[in-house]
Request: fold
Amino acid sequence: MTILQSAPRSSRVTGQRQANRWSVLVLLCLSLLLITVDATVLHIAVPALTAALEPSSVELLWIIDAYSLIVAPLLIMFGTLGDRYGRKRLVLWGYVLFGLASAAAAFAPTPLTLILARGLLGVGGAMIMPATLSIIRQVFTDRRERALALGVWSAVAAAGAAVGPLVGGLLVQHFWWGAVFLINVPILLVLLPAASRLLPESRRLTGRPWDATSAALSVFGILALAFGLKEAGAGHAAGLAVLLTGAGLLVWFVRRQRRLPHPLLDVGLFRDRAFATGVAGVLFGVFSLVGLQLMLAQYLQLVLGDSPLRAALRMLPLVLSAIAGGLAAASVLRRIGMRATMSGGLALVAVSLTPTLSWGVEAHPIMLAVCFVGIGFGLQVALLAASDTIMSAAPEARAGGAAAIEETAYELGAGLGVAVLGTITAVVYAPGVPTVQGVPAPAMDQARQSLAGAAHVAHEVGGGPGTALLDAARWAFVHALHTTIVVSVVLLALTAAAVALLIRRD
Reply:
């Protein structure tokens, strides 16, 4: 009788392990979705946030950008710390920090408080994100199942940034701008006990040294580079010095990685032309998407007059086409090859952006939807091909380092996209807003900080002067948006050409 009872028990244990494996995947994908959505969830909330906190143009860029710029340099650092001290522990502490930072951001009374809270959100996100990929590789030992799980992970990572504005629009329309952060808290209260029960402990690697100097150089180098760009764009003389300091720290970081026997970042992988081109494809693709998403969200609300919800729904074709691109990308890649898929996808994004250069303050609902479809589909196809290029070019023994570089390229592209394109927009916009009679000089200065600031001032001034100010600011923003789109189109076209020339025909 004992023998007869032992077989069902063994079967139940095996079945439980199989169920747990997929439960772990669901848990990790929900965690990843929180992190990626937070990179773009504020885009639709910018007008409401500006009216409430009245940030300067530089402060507004930091509010939006601090998250991605903190996540990017910390990904590799926390990835190696997870290997050394345990990934489960890092994820659980990341949940706690992410939840506390979300609550602080939701009720932030000043721009500086919100920037600091966004920075802490970035730290929490960086603690969670690399562990999600490592735990998937640990839990899914079967190669076919692991490929499926990694495909789901990749789709969630790509879709999160596109879904962010839609989530933000729904929350701002029905609540207030802080709701885009507060929504994280109840979700994390569910994820935390589930993760504590489901996530496996990982074997700790204590033999490999961890270089704190390299971690500090990468973090402060990227932050100084971004800060210098924003301050230089605002006309501050110290910005150029900070920019050069950041570049110097990153050069020091790269040289240090080449000398270390166990580097924090495997920069030797960049010697492979296909690998370097694939990373450039990810970096500039995400750079263009996230930076332009921010500008287009403001265009829809403050130029065309859409409500937050309507603006989010107008961006829905971008989300749906990105999902379609993710589903079709494997088939396209198999049919036309890696080089044609990647360069063609980037070229499609550039072509889809071009019609917007002829638009003013009038609505183009059908053409806008068509452009969003081309952008979402083209970018998702290109990113999958770039990911395939990166992982194919890296030897199997260095696959972990290649994956870390790819994740960093995603987050760095998002952060620099907002920093660079946002700075270009601010630089072109400010002098394009003429002085309006009836508007006090201090109010004009605030209006020149951003289009959201001008809308707030116009509402406060009211009457004819308020209307004239808002009209002038809208045209100035459209001109600035055109400049930003030209920069994006040129970068995308150059990257597409580089892919076609540098990657060998498959």
User: Anything to note?
Assistant: Residues 1-19 have pLDDT under 50 and may be disordered. The chain has 19 helices and no strands. The two ends are 61 Å apart (CA to CA).
